[in-house]
Amino acid sequence: xxxxxxxxxxxxxxxxxxxxxxxxxxxxxxxxxxxxxxxxxxxxxxxxxxxxxxxxxxxxxxxxxxxxxxxxxxxxxxxxxxxxxxxxxxxxxxxxxxxxxxxxxxxxxxxxxxxxxxxxxxxxxxxxxxxxxxxxxxxxxxxxxxxxxxxxxxxxxxxxxxxxxxxxxxxxxxxxxxxxxxxxxxxxxxxxxxxxxxxxxxxxxxxxxxxxxxxxxx
Length: 218
Ligand SMILES: *[C@@H]1O[C@H](CO)[C@@H](O)[C@H](O)[C@H]1NC(C)=O
Ligand SMILES: *[C@@H]1O[C@H](CO)[C@@H](O)[C@H](O)[C@H]1NC(C)=O
Ligand SMILES: *[C@@H]1O[C@H](CO)[C@@H](O)[C@H](O)[C@H]1NC(C)=O
Ligand SMILES: *[C@@H]1O[C@H](CO)[C@@H](O)[C@H](O)[C@H]1NC(C)=O
What we know:
Layout: H1 2-15, H2 38-87, E1 99-101, E2 104-113, H3 115-124, E3 128-129, H4 135-142, E4 151-158, E5 163-166, E6 187-191, E7 196-200, E8 205-212, H5 213-216
Parallel strand pairs: 4-8
Antiparallel strand pairs: 1-2, 2-8, 3-8, 4-5, 4-6, 6-7
């Protein structure tokens, strides 16, 4: 009777595909053997039962670990894609009323103020007075300016260093941009649609602010 119950268990394990785990040398009806081997067979049946249980236990834990690692893998993928989105620059889009130009947004202010006030105004707009990198950028900006309209840019004359200096601290490279007019005390720079000119910093002129899209937008 005992033996039959155990035999049913073995059949179950066969059905679940763990067949390979039972020693192949044992005949199928080993657990129903003759009486003089009874004790030995019972012991080996117990042993097999333990073996089967061990195999089931191992398979379950292997399945569990696999599932766990695949969950971990997918959470790493989620993490990676999240990092990707944060690493990518934000959608390059200028605020309302700011005009895009390459990697900048420009704001053309149409009131007129002394240079230092326009500098302060751009600062309150979380931007700076216009910096111009090269001839190409200059021409692009000048093409947006109506004839006869003048705009301060972020360049003035430093008396102590006797040189034109951008508000970011760099000196003007005069091989790239040439300024028409005096280089003297209290001189600031404006642009028209065709020129770069120096003027007394107290003159009241319109101005252009810039935001750099890549670095400054959150
Ligand atoms: C994602 O970024 C976090 C910190 O921002 C970092 O700890 C983590 O290692 C990054 N993951 C990948 C997959 O780059
Ligand atoms: C700009 O300069 C004028 C005169 O030098 C001064 O009255 C004014 O307060 C200055 N503006 C700023 C924002 O510093
Ligand atoms: C400052 O601006 C000028 C004009 O755009 C540029 O040539 C220079 O490289 C800038 N300097 C720094 C330190 O960013
Ligand atoms: C020129 O600009 C610098 C800031 O870049 C400022 O400290 C200085 O007062 C300005 N000079 C004049 C005459 O406005």
